[in-house]
Write a structure and sequence with these properties.
Structural class: mainly alpha
Oligomer: single chain
Shape: globular
Order of helices and strands: HHHHHHHHHHHHHHHHHHH
Distance between the termini: 49 Å
């Protein structure tokens, strides 16, 4: 009872301080809100919407179940999750935060995952997409496309390590043990696809409308969290709370021979990855390997902004948030260590002007490359895609309201 009352007092005081800060710093709050809104409608919404809609349709048509049966022999021994986890993993890496949580929650609602399996899966399927790592961080902030190779490898290796560790999380259920003994074939996969499609007997038009409706609702929630935490991050800086927290981090950094100037970017990155990565790139006193390690931790931890988005999505199911949060800390540590370990064999190798013929073509991520052009094109076209999608969403809602009234 005392703990519950203490929590109530803490939350009430925090919200009161936030409200008072908004009144005290109106211009700073407005600027931070606009910054979060621009990020959402230029990049996040148009880049995630197609993945969300397509994934909903793939689940409805049974394709995800088909993929799950085929990938069962791979995903079950490695990560102790069903084969459908392979679909979530791939889509999470391709589309970025918080797609892994969205797809995991959806499959849990469909009954493809147990609670423990879902908690294992969501812990390692949320990651930054390659476009953000290469386009925004390495090229946009560091002006160093070769650094993106190191950050991406460290990030995804950290994901895999977390997945391998989380396989030991929770007790094995009888269903999991019996599934291991089965041998799946193409015929079984096709049968599962057909049976899933028969169970979901919605017409294509209804399925598409539900996919658009669900996806836009999720992205509206994501946008709200991005704007909120952009404002919170700015207010914490204005109230000198960020600087106070940075003092505690400086002790840790000094023991690791890291410059004190990295402490504020690190604290900012714990709340919002974009701002934290940008501030880290601007620190002059730190070496590039130190900045790469801090950025790797920030990308892996994913910030309280993304974690709040994930918590909101998971709250719609019985999936607990605590394993996900612990996994973010583990991935941050792994990603930082991989950035340090791979510094010489990866970054220094790709930094040479004369690269061996079998080297990764980092030119794809340089200025004028197709990926960099796509990133900037997304910023130009993104708002139009967002506005058009929101109009479609309003039309779908209006049509369904009219049907209910009729």
């Amino acid at each position: 009872m005392f703990r519950s009352k203490l929590k109530t007092i803490f939350l009430s005081v925090s919200v009161t301080i936030l409200a008072a800060s908004l009144i005290s710093f109106p211009q700073e709050s407005l600027d931070a809100s606009i910054r979060g809104l621009n990020m959402w409608w230029e990049i996040v919404f148009p880049s995630l919407l197609p993945f969300f809609i397509v994934s909903e349709m793939l689940i409805g048509f049974g394709v995800v179940k088909f993929i799950g049966v085929l990938l069962e022999p791979l995903m079950r021994p490695l990560f102790k999750v069903p084969g459908v986890g392979g679909f979530v993993w791939a889509m999470g890496m391709a589309s970025g935060f918080p797609a892994g949580a969205k797809f995991t929650a959806r499959l849990r609602q469909e009954g493809h995952l147990t609670q423990i399996e879902a908690e294992r899966l969501v812990s390692f399927t949320n990651s930054s997409n390659p476009l953000f790592i290469f386009g925004a961080v390495s090229v946009g902030f560091f002006y160093n496309p070769q650094l993106g190779v190191l950050l991406a490898i460290a990030h995804y290796l950290g994901n895999i390590c977390v997945g391998l560790i989380m396989r030991f999380y929770g007790n094995e259920s009888p269903d999991e043990t019996s599934t291991k003994k089965k041998k799946f074939k193409i015929r079984s996969a096709l049968s599962a696809l057909h049976q899933t499609r028969l169970k979901d007997n919605r017409p294509i038009g209804k399925l598409l409308g539900d996919a658009v409706n669900s996806s836009i609702q999720t992205l509206l929630m994501v946008g709200g969290f991005i704007i909120l935490f952009s404002v919170i991050n700015k207010l914490l800086y204005q109230l000198h709370i960020t600087a106070a927290l940075a003092k505690a981090v400086e002790i840790l950094f000094s023991s690791m021979s890291f410059p004190d100037m990295l402490s504020i970017p690190f604290i900012s990155g714990l709340f919002e990855i974009t701002l934290g990565s940008k501030l880290t790139s601007l620190v002059q006193d730190a070496t590039l390997v130190q900045k790469a390690m801090i950025t790797s931790f920030i990308l892996a931890f994913s910030g309280f902004s993304v974690q709040a988005q994930v918590a909101s999505i998971l709250a719609q199911t019985d999936i607990r948030f605590k394993p996900f949060f612990i996994a973010r800390i583990l991935q941050g540590i792994f990603a930082s260590l991989f950035a340090l370990i791979l510094w010489k064999p990866v970054y220094l190798r790709f930094s040479r002007q004369e690269q061996p013929s079998n080297a990764l073509p980092v030119g794809f991520f340089e200025e004028g490359s197709w990926s960099n052009h796509f990133y900037h094109k997304m910023i130009e076209v993104g708002p139009l895609v967002t506005i058009f999608s929101l109009l479609v969403y309003v039309l779908i809602l209006f049509s369904r309201l009219n049907k209910k009234r009729a």
